[in-house]
Design brief:
Low-confidence stretches: 7-23, 154-162
Number of helices: 8
Helix content: 55-70%
Shape: globular
Oligomer: single chain
Structural class: mainly alpha
Number of strands: 0
Length: about 160
């Protein structure tokens, strides 16, 4: 084999073991190692995935009745970290990222089955903004979100259009 052929094989071997950059990953970089990668999540539909992306980024990517921009979870995590300061960040970051995945996946579902609504998101945002301690705020929202997810689908949610 020629020197060039060996060089090509060596380069291919390195690519095979190098960490793969996830194309299209939209979750903030500091959260990616703390939660399940988006490409490993099973979404109910393509629209479920697009609403999940909206939750994290504020991008409406062909979504009906969507308002782009803020709030979005990437921004909220940044604000929580700034509010918590450097001493609280090692504890706050993983909790905030995991909360984002929990809430985002549920909120992004079809309106017929979701157990966390846009109204709930607004309440969660208010709780996080008014909490004097961001870690306690994240923990309170986490408890409330888990309680909602554990409940059967709301009757009012069944009447709303997709």
């Amino acid at each position: 084999m020629s020197h060039r052929g060996r060089a090509v094989l060596a380069a291919l071997a390195l690519l095979a073991v190098a960490p793969v950059a996830r194309a299209g990953e939209f979750v903030r970089a500091d959260c990616r190692a703390l939660i399940k990668p988006t490409d490993a999540i099973r979404f109910d539909t393509d629209q479920h995935q697009r609403w999940y992306k909206r939750f994290w980024t504020g991008s409406c990517d062909r979504l009906p009745l969507c308002f782009a921009g803020s709030p979005n979870w990437n921004d909220i995590v940044g604000k929580l970290l700034a509010k918590g300061g450097p001493g609280e960040q090692p504890t706050l970051l993983p909790k905030a990222c995991r909360l984002g995945q929990l809430v985002g996946l549920e909120w992004a579902k079809s309106k017929q089955v979701q157990k966390i609504s846009t109204r709930d998101l607004k309440g969660f945002k208010d709780m996080l903004e008014t909490a004097s301690d961001p870690l306690k705020g994240v923990e309170a929202v986490d408890a409330q979100a888990r309680a909602l997810i554990g409940q059967p689908a709301r009757a009012s949610a069944l009447k709303r259009p997709l």
